[in-house]
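Budget justification aside, the reviewers requested a transparent look at the raw inputs and outputs of the sequence design task funded under Objective 1. We therefore reproduce one unedited record. The lines immediately below are the structure tokens for a 277-residue chain.
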């Protein structure tokens, strides 16, 4: 089917009190494995293009690939810009057919974050696309997006009140101690803070840094109100490890097949968890 916006799949998740997986795509083969899995599992999904892929010159190409693959599946699929860095980048994504964009103004002051998000909302609305914003910081570094760890990273509840009062975004990513990349040990997620945020807004909440968060913590996050969970590192790692596991003969297609199998398994395990099956 044709691509849909994030609004539609978040409404589906909200009705069922589950979280939609947002998987990052970096190659054609990862895209194939992801779309095959969401079809097999009948799971609406967000396929996100991140900053590393964009720096590698793949924004438009991955967009075309995802649109093409999504046309052959029966579940709703969203093509999403992950951690959009500027209004210009958002425009590029929308011109490339993305149905959803994130503008990551979390490094800015609240005032500037509101201002850039407002600009993006105007443009995205004209294009019929949905918008995700971010408050608080996602720790660690992914795709070279690193935050200054000396700054407060937990989302401030009053900021959520002020931000969501000023701009009507479709989804809000919040920093509650979550981090990009793999965690050293059990993550230290502030669920009390998440509950306080949930108590002051109806905007669907997003958990970034989904790789390596234990199942029980994912369940708690979903119970409180997380409706979208981003997974990038574990998908990429599955692909690489799968390929390496089949490299003995140096046969490209043996490696690709194993890489895709590993991505399918990883994506299915996240879908089972996020959809609480
Ligand atoms: O925006 C992408 C994500 O937050 C992914 O984080 O690489 O830790 O899974 P992750
Ligand atoms: Zn992220």
């Amino acid at each position: 089917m044709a691509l849909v916006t994030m609004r539609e799949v978040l409404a589906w998740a909200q009705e069922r009190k589950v979280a939609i997986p947002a998987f990052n795509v970096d190659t054609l083969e990862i895209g194939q494995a992801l779309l095959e899995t969401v079809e097999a599992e009948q799971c609406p999904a967000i396929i996100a293009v991140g900053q590393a892929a964009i720096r590698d010159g793949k924004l438009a190409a991955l967009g075309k690939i995802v649109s093409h693959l999504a046309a052959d599946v029966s579940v709703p699929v969203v093509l999403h810009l992950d951690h959009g860095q500027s209004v210009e980048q958002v425009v590029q994504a929308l011109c490339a057919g993305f149905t959803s964009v994130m503008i990551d103004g979390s490094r800015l002051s609240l005032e500037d974050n509101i201002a850039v998000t407002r600009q993006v909302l105007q443009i995205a609305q004209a294009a019929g696309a949905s918008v995700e914003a971010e408050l608080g910081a996602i720790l660690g570094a992914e795709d070279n997006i690193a935050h200054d760890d000396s700054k407060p990273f937990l989302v401030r509840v009053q900021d959520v009140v002020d931000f969501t009062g000023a701009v009507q975004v479709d989804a809000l990513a919040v920093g509650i101690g979550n981090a990009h990349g793999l965690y050293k040990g059990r993550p230290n997620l502030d669920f009390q803070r998440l509950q306080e945020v949930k108590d002051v807004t109806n905007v669907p909440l997003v958990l970034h840094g989904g790789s390596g968060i234990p199942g029980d913590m994912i369940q708690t996050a979903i119970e409180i109100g997380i409706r979208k969970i981003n997974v990038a590192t574990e998908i990429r790692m599955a692909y690489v490890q799968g390929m390496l596991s089949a490299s003995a003969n140096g046969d490209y297609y043996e490696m690709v097949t194993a890489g895709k199998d590993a991505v399918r398994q990883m994506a299915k395990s996240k879908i089972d968890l996020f959809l609480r099956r």
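The chain has eleven helices and ten strands. Residues 83, 138, 180, 208, 230 surround zinc ion (ligand 2) (CB under 6 Å). Computational costs for records of this kind are itemized in the attached budget.
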